[in-house]
């Protein structure tokens, strides 16, 4: 991206966790931001902080991303304002721990709507603009769980597997059009996600838990470098190697114990 071009970074799920940290790190680079989430009060508080601290332009969009029509309307509003989204951070997502059959069906389907359908729609509308301009960057926030099916995380790990494979395919499809697609696969991180997912924090998870700052920094650097994907943290990298090197029966059982499933 040329320094004098007025382009924007759109971050979904920007009101907390990784999304908030992406906003802070891109603001520190002087980028103009479009912050998208459902919680308007948190978005407005964050945008005020970023404007004051970094003197950047920030647009706040309160959107229920589980609604595809809402995603289409978001794209339409930004296009009408001539907001050029050069970087799309597909961060919004929802997780839930527990046996699949013990969860209400509507909660599992809502997870699929947000983690898969919404991400797909956002990518389609904004990547089409990027391809037309022959320039753009898309970061897909997947998960360490995307590498395997994990007991008591059946829908979430499957949804994140979709995100990772979708990202892998688009990385190759769009590269010749000047659009970079990268997957970020974080492990356990101190973002508040575990609490909202009602996840058990085992001693093993506490040992490998990362802070959001280095995870987000690794994602931004990988995207800027045009990498296919990145797994932040030595322990998380070791787990991915173990996944590739061992039978599914072994590493899925190990992950189930680590995750307290």
UniProtKB/TrEMBL annotation:
Pfam families the UniProt entry points to: adh_short (PF00106)
Entries under SUPFAM superfamilies matching the protein: NAD(P)-binding Rossmann-fold domains (SSF51735)
InterPro entries with a match to the protein in the record: NAD(P)-bd_dom_sf, Sc_DH/Rdtase_CS, SDR_fam
Gene3D superfamilies attached to this UniProt entry: NAD(P)-binding Rossmann-like Domain
Highest taxon of the lineage: Bacteria
Keyword terms of this UniProt record: Oxidoreductase
UniProt similarity note: Belongs to the short-chain dehydrogenases/reductases (SDR) family.
Protein name: SDR family oxidoreductase
Species lineage: Bacteria, Pseudomonadati, Pseudomonadota, Gammaproteobacteria, Pseudomonadales
């Amino acid at each position: 991206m040329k320094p004098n071009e007025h382009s924007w970074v759109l971050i979904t799920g920007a009101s907390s966790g990784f999304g908030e940290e992406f906003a802070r790190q891109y603001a520190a680079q002087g980028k103009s931001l479009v912050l998208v989430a459902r919680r308007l009060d948190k978005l407005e508080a964050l945008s005020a902080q970023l404007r004051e601290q970094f003197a950047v332009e920030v647009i706040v969009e309160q959107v229920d991303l589980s609604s595809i029509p809402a995603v289409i309307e978001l794209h339409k509003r930004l296009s009408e304002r001539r907001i050029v989204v050069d970087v799309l951070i597909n961060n919004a997502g929802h997780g839930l721990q527990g046996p699949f059959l013990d969860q209400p069906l509507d909660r599992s389907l809502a997870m699929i709507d947000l983690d898969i359908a919404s991400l797909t729609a956002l990518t389609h509308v904004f990547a089409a603009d990027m391809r037309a301009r022959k320039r753009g960057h898309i970061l897909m926030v997947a998960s360490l769980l995307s590498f395997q099916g994990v007991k008591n995380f059946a829908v979430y790990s499957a949804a994140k597997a979709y995100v990772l494979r979708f990202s892998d395919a688009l990385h190759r499809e769009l590269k010749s059009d000047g659009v970079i697609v990268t997957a970020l696969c974080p492990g356990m991180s101190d973002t508040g996600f575990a609490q909202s997912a009602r996840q058990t924090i085992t001693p093993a998870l506490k040992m490998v838990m990362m802070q959001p700052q280095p995870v987000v920094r690794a994602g931004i650097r990988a995207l800027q470098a045009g990498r296919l994907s990145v797994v932040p943290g030595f322990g998380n990298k070791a787990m991915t190697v173990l996944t590739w090197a061992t039978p599914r029966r072994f590493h899925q059982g190990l992950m189930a114990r680590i995750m307290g499933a």
